[in-house]
Amino acid sequence: MNPRLFIGPMSKEIVDAVIDYPESLGLIPSRRQVDHESGYVNGWVTETFCEYVRSKTDNVLLVRLFFGGYTVLLQMRKWILLSIVLFNLEQH
Could you give the percent of the chain with pLDDT greater than 70? Predict the structure, then answer.
């Protein structure tokens, strides 16, 4: 299995379409879509999402999207603020 296309599972219908597709595809949920404690897609958490897909097919690669656009901006802001604080500490 070497999918060239990964789909974000925005709904159960999209997940089912990926499962039924004749070629190998990947599903790449964000943490908001499917997470270990919650998720807005079909109420799935990581375990139930994986169980659902695996109960239907072994032809879909499951991976995790760890950073969305907003998350990356928040992380960058934290690093910038930390750098400023450290720089100011070194100056005193």
Answer: 71
